[in-house]
Write a structure and sequence with these properties.
The chain is α+β, with helices and mostly antiparallel strands and 124 residues long. It is built from one helix and five strands.
Amino acid sequence: MRYLTVVLRLLLTLLPFVLAGAVTALAAPSAAPFVPGPSAGAPEHAHDGGVLNGTVVGIDYVRGVMSLRAEKKGMLDVYVLPSTNIQGKRTGYYTIADLKKGANVEVFTSVVGSRTNAEIIKLK
């Protein structure tokens, strides 16, 4: 009998909160359905950006952006993704922390929209 009393009190205590939530949900305006506009097309797909040879001019370790002076394309910002494979002269693992200003690199890239992403970076 005591268990039944406790459960009943709990239900009566929670009932006003449940009702208030239901009333609020019913009173809230419903969201309009999503209708794609002219700018909301399918997401852009990556395509081959080619191979860039150049010198690291600067690197933003927080944003993951490497400024590169490429031999044929001039100054270019290249995004270093967590999936970017960084290779050096020795065996072992390399990270974005191993990229330094003045380093000569060969970068295999992909392009999504106007953004150039590094897929493989080879330190020379």
